[in-house]
Amino acid sequence: MHPLQRVLRAQRCLRWGPLASVSWLLLRTCRACCNLSSTACPSPETQQEDGVRKDFSSRLAAGPTFQHFLRSASVPQEKLSSPDVEDPPPYLTVDELLGRQRKVYLETYGCQMNVNDTEIAWSILQKSGYLRTSNLQEADVILLVTCSIREKAEQTIWNRLRHLKALKTKRLRSRVPLKIGILGCMAERLKEEILNREKMVDILAGPDAYRDLPRLLAVAESGQQAANVLLSLDETYADVMPVQTSPSATSAFVSIMRGCDNMCSYCIVPFTRGRERSRPVASILEEVRKLSEQGLKEVTLLGQNVNSFRDNSEVQFNNAVSTNLSRGFSTNYKAKQGGLRFAHLLDQVSRIDPEMRIRFTSPHPKDFPDEVLQLIHERDNICKHIHLPAQSGSSRVLEAMRRGYSREAYVELIHHIRESIPGVSLSSDFIAGFCGETEEDHLQTVSLLREVQYNMGFLFAYSMRQKTRAYHRLKDDVPEEVKSRRLEELITVFRKEATKANKTSVGCTQLVLVEGLSKRSATDLCGRNDGNLKVIFPDVEMEDVTNSGLGVRAQPGDYVLVKVRCTVAILAFAVKWELDWIISGE
């Protein structure tokens, strides 16, 4: 082959081949060029060229290898000034990534996952040298952790930004310029629209980009807008220990998985939080142990589809065992196999501290195999409360929603759960006025509320979201006034049936975890029972059963035995109780 052909082939390999072969190909090309001359005694010019080639070859051998292009590779380098700061990008210094005592104000909107995301974001910023403030006026950075599940949730953020714009405009020139950031699902869904519509927004960070917050803020310091809304296939923040936002909290959220693969036609979550991926079991257990050591009395395991948890990080458990679904339920995706499932995790978590309550949310009805129900029944510290989102009582609407079950299968599951876990408390989600919902469909949802008699409920009018299957395939054809009327009818029926369900506990004594003072009265305390119902009871001195004769007042973290006196029928059910006696939380 002619040497020039070899050079051209090397160039093609360099363009498409692996980086590891770069050095070898270049050296081979140099040797090919050397063979162009066939004289036995090289001329002075040839000797000079050989020297240049040798010098080039030696410099090439000392240059970067394939490992230098891997972010996670261990590359010899000088020690950074701060061990908590990652390698800076070429356009920033380590010092610019540090917070330098700037104060951050965080506001959280939406679901429990956003509460946990706030704790993760703050953990990352705290390690970079930022300080936390609860005073909006003294903040140097304001971050809103946002929700996109409904249009009303986003409108709340737009209204809040108008208020913050005035705050930013009035900022004294003598102070550090105020930076405002949008985090979470709204940043992921709207992206450029936020930056273009609200020029005062400095940074955007999607749910999988919180590790990038120090860099985004550093870029914003130069006067530029900065954004990272890339979704990840593996980010779970497993190595980030969330920082509890309330030092007096008695409970904590622990994220065990992120994203959702269900692709229900109405839901924006798969597009704002990405595909399902689960944390390794070991990292979850370590976090729960630390929370137990800190004295917390309740942990809620979190996930968009929490009971579809599947840890594939340990190869020995990636066998061909198929997934057990609830009877009569199906999935919108190919059946998954192997991994450590939710029943295994729930078992391990409940063994860490028998006195720590374990809850989980939000599940999907399809992922309640018998082994999960049996475990809830057997373990005293796993709360006997199950959230079972129905969304509709009409099989036709459920099919349009792509929920993977019929009304009949859902009702059969309800009966099976109540048989497996006597006294279980049930809650649900319902959507009024989904695409194509007829009056007959609506009445079937009303009848489901009457048949099941949920203890708690979350009911909303349908709000179409861009990118969803419903947006592309269905028509939002139910008028807003009809949606509102149907929603009011659902709420009325729900309250009536929930009152009946909760009245069965009147006269019973139940265990309540004290959370703090009631918002309704300065003379009352509030807490939650095993079924997740809010409890209101008087703040009076009583006898501590662990120290006979000692009078004490209940404190957050104490367990109190109370007797039900009456129930109050509201959506977020508050229950009036009669105090009986207290078990110390110390």
Automatic annotation (TrEMBL):
Domain Radical SAM core: 246-500
EC code: 2.8.4.3
Cofactor(s) for this UniProt protein: [4Fe-4S] cluster
Keyword tags: 4Fe-4S, Iron, Iron-sulfur, Metal-binding, S-adenosyl-L-methionine, Signal
Record-annotated MTTase N-terminal domain positions: 102-222
Reactions it catalyzes: N(6)-dimethylallyladenosine(37) in tRNA + (sulfur carrier)-SH + AH2 + 2 S-adenosyl-L-methionine = 2-methylsulfanyl-N(6)-dimethylallyladenosine(37) in tRNA + (sulfur carrier)-H + 5'-deoxyadenosine + L-methionine + A + S-adenosyl-L-homocysteine + 2 H(+)
Domain TRAM, chain residue ranges per copy: 503-578
One family name in Pfam for this protein: UPF0004
GO cellular component, one term: cytosol
Protein's GO biological process: regulation of protein metabolic process
Signal peptide: 1-32
Molecular function (Gene Ontology), one example: 4 iron, 4 sulfur cluster binding
Highest taxon of source: Eukaryota
Stated family: Belongs to the methylthiotransferase family. MiaB subfamily.
Name the UniProt record assigns to this protein: Mitochondrial tRNA methylthiotransferase CDK5RAP1
